[in-house]
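Subject: complex prediction, re-run

Hi both,

The earlier run crashed halfway through, so I resubmitted it with identical inputs.
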Amino acid sequence: MEKKIKEDHHQELQKEEPNSTKNTETTTSSSTHMMNLITTSDHHQMELAGNNMNLSSSFDIPISSPFAYSYFEDHSSNNPNSFLDLLRQDQHQFASSSNSSSFSFNAFPLQNNTNHIFTDLPLSQPVTTKDESSEVVSTTPTSPNATSFSSSSNEAANDNINKEVTVKDQEDGDQHGPKGTKPQLKAKKKQQKKAREARVAFLTKSDIDNLDDGYRWRKYGQKAVKNSPYPRSYYRCTTVGCGVKKRVERSSDDPSIVMTTYEGQHTHAFPMTPRGHIGMLTSPILDHGATTASSSSSFSIPQPRYLLSQHHQPYNIMYNNNSLSMINRSSSSDGSFVNPGSSSFHGFGCDMSQASTSTTAAIRDHGLLQDILTSKIRSDTINTRTNEEDNK
DNA sequence: CGTCTTTGACCTGCGC
DNA sequence: GCGCAGGTCAAAGACG
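This time it finished cleanly. Structure:
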């Protein structure tokens, strides 16, 4: 069974390969770094794997990463559903259902006909104790059904939101009373701060570092990344009061892949451009869009410009405060989503259960992903998976 | 002139 | 405490 799945996986990869290579101008064969989502169907932890190599080799992501991590090709020009469009929809819908303002990207609504896949892995381990982390993981529905994932993820997020509120209330109480030592307060504030912002990461096959989604970003920093020849750039949404940040980093192993990580949630509608153009303000979908963008955005249509380029193949990593989420876009030509099904993730031609086969990958420096996926989460995931495997 | 990028300095967290 | 790395600040310059 597992063998067959692997074969299917391989075949799927071969199908994807032509486009993959076609869309890269780099000398590096991107096809050898194509990522594929592998997730354990039993506990919904997703992992990365590559074509005849593991993802960790191309993105410094441990194979045991609990990431809901996907690779999909974006048939850009004829694909009406860019991943950013999707993200916007998700943001809107999820935001509509979420009453929390303290979490960003906390919502990736699942629609019954989409294959958004969520994991319920805790994101901000500094907030959650080990027990809490386990608790979140254990709340993961056993059904691979995307909607279940979504619902569960949302609930998990709310749970943590509630926890955060509780912490804050306690902290307020401390402030009003003599109880609580300074170190304790400091620790609480620290935890609260760390837990506040959720992150969403996208892997995009692109020649352009600064992808454009229509939001306006101001670059406020750039840092060299350890073990990577490519620097990491830091951007902040220029809209007053909007604290959304994004980090852009190019994969050192596959320079054709740009990793964009968003942190926070836009507090404003889809932005008007600096030249006075209105970017799809009429669409409520965009109200909560979380996107990538270049600072010189001036487009008036919702479609992110960079996705209109033929050189972009986004991967999605949805990273919630309390869960890693993934949006999978299959390589179907119409850009529609392919439901991964109960066990086999056809969009990637591999079985999610495969993930459990590679838990021994070394944890190295993970670059941007290292920030998104903390070592604790990784180790917890490994431990959790190992325990489950032992139980089988 | 407003906006944005660049870049060195600074701050913070973490491991040893 | 020290060093390292990530993240942020802010002054200076570029650009339209």
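Residues 1-83, 89-196, 272-312, 317-392 of chain A have pLDDT under 50 and may be disordered.

- K.
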